[in-house]
Write a structure and sequence with these properties.
Layout lengths: L1 E2 L7 E7 L9 E6 L6 E9 L2 E10 L4 E5 L1
Antiparallel strand pairs: 1-6, 2-5, 3-4, 3-6, 4-5
């Protein structure tokens, strides 16, 4: 679950995901609260010689998003 607590400002959030089983995935399903496509892109990179996975989400004021693994 991701929530923007601001009542007036949109925010962009980068959320680090657990790496153990996600490196082959490219999308996460959205259960509630985002756009109509129903998925967000899962990005993969290297940080300090370790693989990381993350998502980038744009949140409108007071927007709540629920994601599914």
């Amino acid at each position: 679950m991701i929530y923007n607590t601001s009542v007036s400002e949109a925010k962009e959030k980068f959320i680090l995901m657990h790496n153990d089983s996600r490196m082959g995935d490219t999308e996460l399903d959205i259960v509630y609260g985002y756009n109509s496509c129903g998925t967000v892109i899962l990005y993969h990179s290297i940080l300090n010689n370790r693989p990381i996975s993350y998502i980038k989400i744009h949140l409108d004021p007071l927007q709540l998003i629920i994601l599914k693994n």
